[in-house]
Amino acid sequence: MPFVKRRKLKEQEEELNKTREDLDDLIFYLEQITSFLPVAVCIITGVKVFLDVNDSFEKLTGYPSLEIIGKPIDSIFEEKENIKTLINSVEKKGDVESEELTLLTSKKKKIPVRVSCGQRKDNQQNITGYFLTIVDISESKEFQKKLEETVRERTKQLRRRLNELEIFHNMTVGRELKMIELKKEIKGLKEELKGSKKNKK
Amino acid sequence: MAIFKKTPFKEGVFEKLSISEGIKEIVRIIKGNAKAETLINHLSYIKEKAGQEAVDKILLELEKNGIGVKIEELKTLEQIPDNISTVVVYLTKTLLGWSEQEIYEMGNNAPKTSFITKTLMRGLFSIDMAVKMVPKYWRVHFSEGSLSVPSYDKKNKTLILKLDYHYPPSSCWFVQGYFRRAVQLIVGSNPVIEQTKFMYKGDPYQEFIIKW
């Protein structure tokens, strides 16, 4: 093989190796980012089965990736129809949409979650699947529940105070009216008395 | 000297070899390269199912047979001889004593952990597209052999895979598990796979019928 061709081949091989190394770095970088993300993220195929999940997903659901990949998306939600409807809606409209659903963990625990779904497309705009994020909203649900309880309790207290005030109001207003009536009566009697005195004279 | 003149890994002959002889034959017959990811995933699956001891046992056996692997230095896309991962599957059967079903499960789980497979799958949105992509898909992983779809019946949900690549009987269950899972990720439902032609039985290629 001529020297020039050999050198060119060597250069191409070096370039290829460099590209491979860069790609390996990129894979490492992507793996680090997805495992760092505190939100459960998963990739769903066009036929709605799990293709990939991150560390937070495994932690939240209790399902190791080996177990969940290949399973249908509705296998981890209580509202089977709602998740399908959500994905169908995303498929038609193209926007990212969210819904509150109940997650069923591997230990059969139920966790309220907010699920957001978006389309995955290839460079020719064909839908190749979906991205899904799952956020545990049990804390905010709990907070909301407590808040609603507090509001209910406060409303009850206020209603009680209002009733008391109404009774007090009725009492005081009644007393006031009685006094006015009495004053009128006194005034009338006084005038009557004054008239009878004049008549005597 | 070649043990198998016409039929590499000939059934009934290959199984009678000692582990070292078997490894030598695999290395002699399988010449191509594959991405190091295949080997990394094999070992990580073995670790998950049988612990680090099992992995160490395999690495030691590889070393004893002149195949030095520094697993921590391997990079996903690095090209390494494909025979190493085939030897690892062979050792899970012969050295660790895994059953055919366990090796099938190993293959069935392999697409789930493969970055390359998942990346390729992300671009597939239908079985029609996957059928067209099959030869390219093989080439991304392996430098030797070929994979094609000589028959695809969309209506009856059946396809035939033709694989022109030698492997020993120990890899047979792994490959079936692998193809089954790859198709399952594309079609969603649970396919059934059957290998109908075996190169180690003298057939000119490996053939699989997959129904879903």
Q: Mind sketching the topology for me?
A:
The complex is a heterodimer of chains A (201) and B (212).
Chain A: H1 3-36, E1 40-45, E2 50-53, H2 55-61, H3 65-68, H4 80-93, E3 97-104, E4 110-121, E5 127-136, H5 138-200
Antiparallel strand pairs in A: 1-2, 1-5, 3-4, 4-5
Chain B: H1 19-29, E1 33-35, H2 36-50, H3 52-64, E2 79-81, H4 82-94, H5 100-113, H6 115-122, H7 127-141, E3 146-153, E4 158-164, H8 169-187, E5 192-197, E6 206-211
Antiparallel strand pairs in B: 1-2, 3-4, 4-6, 5-6
Helix pairs in contact in B: 1-4, 2-3, 2-4, 2-5, 5-8, 6-7
Brief rundown of the structure:
The complex is a heterodimer of chains A (201) and B (212). Chain A is of the alpha+beta class and 201 residues long.
Our estimate of the beta-strand percent of chain B is: 15-25%
The whole-angstrom Rg of chain B is 17 Å
Order of helices and strands of chain B: HEHHEHHHHEEHEE
Q: Which series of helices and strands of chain A comes N to C?
A: HEEHHHEEEH
**End-to-end CA span of chain B:** 44 Å
| Class of secondary structure makeup of chain A | alpha+beta
Largest interface: A-B, 24 and 23 residues
Structural class based on helices, strands and sheet pairing of chain B: alpha+beta
Percent range of helical residues of chain B: 40-55%
Poorly predicted runs of 5 or more residues of chain A: none
Q: Main β-sheet of chain B: number of strands, strand sense, barrel status? A: 4 strands, antiparallel
Shape of chain A: rod-shaped
- Mean of residue pLDDT of chain A? 90
Largest sheet of chain A: 5 strands, antiparallel
DSSP helical segment count of chain A? 5
Q: Please give the radius of gyration of chain A in angstroms.
A: 39 Å
The count of β-strands of chain A is 5
Number of discrete helical segments of chain B = 8
| Basic shape of chain B | globular
